[in-house]
């Protein structure tokens, strides 16, 4: 409450500087909001000089103080306070404000050195050129202005690098992050910078350079586990499955331990780089995976690579984690690597089935069927109009309708896939009748879907779930047809294969089975004609068809493989012999 007095201002501003640093250090959390204490200090300076600035914004207030207050004894305290103000603005990513302030500080020091141009690159030059005011022994500081300058420079380079990385300017981002890596910071921050360098190099298409940066991050701070997850991602991109699985296994093991307190190579400082740089892009790059996410990635990668035994082990471990309240531990903001839980169950069932554990696969599928049944309506109408931009429903109502339709389609697809996997599992057990029952249940399920709309039959207007249901129907028809063949019910098998080809004309598996069914029905002339037709188109149109459409979910890949015709060469030889014999009979 005392009036401001010029002789006491250097002490007053130094006390303010120290108290703000103590406040920052005590909170040990990212700086947010405005530094009201700094504003009050500037107003005290103006008051002592007989001026006023209550109506000015913070930037205008700094400009007024630095231009009008010329007393030598106030320059050092004001510059130190200016560095603190820069820290607050930097934490808010207000780089233009920081640049303007350092421009004013440089002008106050030496008008000849004032910079005329603005910009982020210019900012680093201005910070580096700023002359740190000398310390006075009579006014001790809790953190030197020299250290603060180094921290500001490092944080600015780091922040600019992240902004350029987010904007897709990777070369500029790489240069700025490399500058930051040479700055003044703790081991923890240095590891984070190297992690960002690795991500930047990866996006530039330089995976080996990315690995070098990421390994450097782990050498600096072995607790920087996000770097390890990015290492696994780079190895996945390179197709080096062994290295990827090793990285994921190390990550899972590390996440399961309680890490000790992070070590730092820097002295204990109140203002630190980590308190100034906290942007969404950094949070995203450094997101810590939950152990269950890593366990799922291990299972998924093993299954994709054909390491079925390992995949089964990881999937079963993951399913056991579900009993520990997994859904409450994993983030629900879309950043998680986990798919929907029914999909994980179906992937586990696929792995079990491929490992020869058919009964276990059937049991897991039964759980999916049981849990989805209550969420599937008796008739599911898919409206094309909901997919169109000109739909007349209000925004909230449209979103709700789309969500409801999508969820019902997902549940139907999961249950149908469960029946499909059960069908193939029973087939592997030699139980053709039970397999036919499950395939038929799958097909009956799919009859619930009714498509409405003039253009709904066009693939581009179909929801992805409907497209997947078509693929499930194709695989189920082929599967049931193969079991009819096993039981000698060749006419029924022929009908299923014909229906399959109506869904997917030219499908190689269905086409080959169709030829075999005709052959077994002793309709050899038709079989030969169909075989010739499909042989001629197999290298053209059909090859193109196989590469079209959305990729299949992982749990359907094994069904697709099982639907492929396994006896192509013997059947081809039989038909070729028949055609030769027919040609000889004609010529004679």
TrEMBL record:
Signal sequence annotation: none
Gene3D superfamilies: Tetratricopeptide repeat domain
Alphabetized UniProt keyword annotations: TPR repeat
Listed GO biological process terms: interstrand cross-link repair
Bacterial transcriptional activator domain boundaries: 455-536
GO cellular component: Fanconi anaemia nuclear complex
Name this protein carries in UniProt: FANCG protein
Name of the gene: Fancg
